[in-house]
Amino acid sequence: MFRRYAIFTNKFPMLHNINLMIVIFVMLVSVYQLVENEQLAYANGIAFALLSVVMFARASDYKRKFLTTNK
C-alpha cells in the first residue's frame, strides 16, 4: 500500500497535495468539533488524520529510498 501511494505521488503530485489538504481540513474540523461539542464521536476524524499521516510518512520513506535517482 505504501509503495503504491509513493508511485501515485510521483505520477500525480497535485492529487497528493489535494489529499494532504483534505486530511488537514478533516483534522482541523475534528479538533474544533471535539473541543466545542465535547463529543468523543469527533475523535474519529483525528484517528483518520493520524492514520493518513502514518501512510504519508511511510510512502515518503519508500519514495526517498527507492524511487529517487542518485545524481
Features:
about 70 residues, mainly alpha, elongated
Describe the 3D structure.
There is one protein chain. With 71 residues, the chain is an all-alpha fold. The protein is 85% helix and 0% strand. The model has no long low-confidence stretch (mean pLDDT 92).
How many individual helices? 3
Q: Approximately how much beta-strand content do the residues carry?
A: under 5%
Share in helix = over 70%
The chain-level structural class is: mainly alpha
Output the helix-strand order.
HHH
Uncertain residue segments: none
> What is the β-strand count?
0
Radius of gyration: 15 Å
Quote the average pLDDT.
92
Largest sheet: none
The span between the termini is: 27 Å
Topology summary:
Layout: H1 2-11, H2 13-37, H3 43-67
